[in-house]
Design a protein that fits this description.
Distance between the termini: 43 Å
Shape: globular
Number of strands: 7
Strand content: 5-15%
Number of helices: 11
Helix content: 40-55%
Largest sheet: 4 strands, parallel
Length: 286
């Protein structure tokens, strides 16, 4: 399974690759190249996060522009900054990119927000991607890494049931390796903070609505504009619980009034800061 990292890919319209890889990364890149080469044509579920970004970039690089289409699902659960970044990355990397509209909030099984919410979200995504993949004779692929397998992920189950593949998993890549490989190729997504869908800010059992997602989006956008790139606004009715990295807490207190103003712009009456700090997937923990 030789790597093509030191030469131009054999595919006619693919991009040049980096000339050298540090030894510890080369096997993972070679495996990923091989997995993508075996698939031949892919439709990438492209959210703009580190995982899907590396998958999109490598698919474009290995298979060529016409054989690797990236698709972003646009809905109320996608933060506006993430959509804008997907568009920017597609331009930067010369990727064939499409937007598709999904409406998972209209699905009762999703809106009631039980612990299987992500299952119904990914089913909606796959329903939007599948027609594109069929028209190309392609396989739908998603940015899932090996570390994601350590806890229950109903969304992955839904995608698997609909025939999606996970090349990063098949290549054996962990999150840290995804970031390291991205850094090697100079991808600005290498250290991008995790950005789960906005519904992940709503505790299970609290109904997910477009207005609730809009509240979260406005509050988080305001905080990001203040210089807090890693942030979660957890939704508890009129109360917002803001999670920031521990090192950002003193800064948040220094600009307390601006933080309150930004969060209240989302429609919250009470603004709290969680002293335990930012924890991705916090609402999944007991």
């Amino acid at each position: 399974m030789p790597s093509r990292c030191s030469q131009i890919s054999a595919y006619p319209d693919s991009m040049p690759v980096a000339p050298e890889l540090v030894p510890e990364l080369a096997p993972g890149v070679a495996r990923l190249e091989w997995e993508l080469g075996q698939l031949g044509r892919v439709v990438v579920g492209f959210s703009g996060g580190a995982d899907s970004a590396l998958l999109a970039y490598m698919s474009r690089q290995v298979l060529g522009r016409s054989q690797a289409v990236c698709v972003t699902a646009v809905s109320a659960s996608l933060a506006p900054e993430e959509l804008a970044d997907c568009a920017a990355l597609a331009r930067e990397w010369d990727i064939e990119w499409q937007r598709v509209t999904t409406d998972e909030v209209a699905t009762e099984a999703y809106a009631r927000n039980a612990s299987d919410r992500c299952y119904h979200c990914k089913a909606e995504l796959m329903g939007a991607i599948e027609p594109i993949a069929r028209s190309m004779g392609a396989v739908a692929v998603l940015g899932v890494n090996v570390d994601d397998l350590s806890e229950p992920r109903p969304g992955q189950q839904a995608a698997s049931e609909r025939g999606a593949r996970f090349p990063l998993v098949d290549a054996g890549l962990t999150k840290s390796e995804v970031r390291a490989i991205s850094r090697h190729f100079g991808l600005r997504t290498a250290d991008k903070p995790a950005a789960a869908c906005l519904a992940s800010r709503v505790p299970y059992g609290t109904r997910v609505t477009v207005s609730v997602l809009r509240q979260v989006a406005v509050a988080e956008s305001g905080l990001k504009a203040l210089g807090f790139p890693s942030v979660r606004v957890r939704h508890y009715g009129e109360l917002a619980r803001v999670e920031l990295p521990i090192e950002d807490l003193p800064v948040a207190l220094e600009v307390r009034e601006a933080v309150v103003t930004a969060v209240r712009a989302g429609g919250y009456r009470y603004v709290t800061i969680d002293l335990e700090g930012f924890r991705s997937g916090n609402l999944n923990r007991p």
